[in-house]
Amino acid sequence: MTTSSVSPATAPASPEVRRGRARMGFGLLGPRRDRHALSADQVEALALPVGDDGMVIGVDASGRPSVLGINRPTAYDVTLIGGLWTAQVLALRAAATGARVTVETGRAPAWTALAQAAGGGQQCIALHDVGRVPPQGASAGSPVVVVRDCGMRPPRGRVVSAPWQSVLTLLPYLSPVAPRLLEKSDLVGVQRVSPDEAAQIGRIMHLPQAETEALSTLADGVTLWCGARDRQFVMTQATDAETGLLGSARRMD
């Protein structure tokens, strides 16, 4: 009678060996801890105070950043009844998002220092006379923001809003063309105006009485932004670099 033998290579491993082999290279099992879990209410507290991607245009009444997505795959029209200072801050911040900014203006000297300082030596803000803006060739990789600073009665622009090409029209005050611009705009900003202008804007924009009355008392740098579904008062606060270039916030130019 012969005795069979089992070689070490084929011998079944003990449970202890199998457990050690399964964790080979991963160290020893550590101590067991309870899972870190949050309730739904606690998760909300971790949210960042930013509602969208884009450029920060200021802070709301609670001090949270207000963000405007200016570079969009669809046409986007913005009308600002306000001061040159706010329009120039928005132009600088649009350029900081990577957009090419084209300014159509009848007062080029007011924009020259800004255009020269922006971009760190690269021309990212270009100035053109009224009615002389060439086609911009906007694309997802090269979005464009056109700022129209053409006075109280801006003519119809040759370059209009399009995918990846937003247009911001600046009106210093309410003018005869304002109702048409306000009605077709996707976003409207209103800074301090006279009580009569505030009443007209309130009727056009269907504003509540309290907000209509507030328009004639707004501080410098404060804008009421009105979108399709909501309205928000925003304080635009300049950075040190913006203040050095443009000065302090002001409604009048």
Describe the fold and architecture.
There is one protein chain. The protein has helices spanning 15-22, 40-44, 84-96, 109-117, 178-184, 195-205, 209-214, 240-246; strands spanning 55-59, 65-68, 76-81, 100-105, 125-128, 144-149, 165-171, 187-190, 222-226, 231-235. With 253 residues, it is α/β, with parallel strands linked by helices. The strands form 2 sheets. Strands 5-4-6-7-3-8-9-10 form an 8-stranded mixed beta sheet, with helices on both faces. A two-stranded antiparallel ribbon has the order 1-2. A hairpin with a 5-residue loop joins strand 1 and strand 2. The radius of gyration is 29 Å and the shape is globular. The model is unreliable at 1-9, 22-27 and 46-51 (pLDDT under 50).
SSE layout and pairing:
Layout: H1 15-22, H2 40-44, E1 55-59, E2 65-68, E3 76-81, H3 84-96, E4 100-105, H4 109-117, E5 125-128, E6 144-149, E7 165-171, H5 178-184, E8 187-190, H6 195-205, H7 209-214, E9 222-226, E10 231-235, H8 240-246
Parallel strand pairs: 3-7, 3-8, 4-5, 4-6, 6-7
Antiparallel strand pairs: 1-2, 8-9, 9-10
Provide the descriptors you would attach to this structure in a database record:
single chain, 253 residues, alpha/beta, eight-stranded mixed β-sheet, two-stranded antiparallel ribbon, 10 strands, disordered N terminus
